[in-house]
Design a protein that fits this description.
By secondary structure, the protein is an all-alpha fold. The chain has helices at 3-24, 28-52, 57-79, 81-86, 91-116, 120-144. The protein is 81% helix and 0% strand.
Amino acid sequence: MNGWLLAAAAVLALGVAPAVWGATTGPLRRRVVAQNVATLLVCLVMLLLAQGYARPSYIDLGLVLAVLGPAGTLVYARLFADELAADPPTARVTYAMTVLSAAAPPLVVLPLCVATGPGRSLVKLLVIGVLLTAGNVISGRAVSGRTPLRREAHDG
């Protein structure tokens, strides 16, 4: 077992497991935030596993999660906009999610870039880092209610 696999196991145990628990239990506001955090962390785990097992194809899975994770959160925020507006996540939770979304990808992606070296995998890692950071910050704003996503009633 190398350090990359140990880091992946730590993120799984200390991050993904509580996020999955939060996504399956409790009020809607917690479930949507936990789903967003879980996809972020699973993406980072895939990147760590790619380096730990020396399987560059796992990076492609991370790229897919980096695109679909925040998009899924935006879909949930749109579908449940009225419920989230009635009972929004607390400011402390949304702040913590924003900090995690901005800090976690660089903490994982930059060491992986150094270990990977120049090439196609490096470009993929940088794209994944940007997508994760930007996508999760945007979807975090949508979940917190700072972006208007509620459907307006149309008189017909």
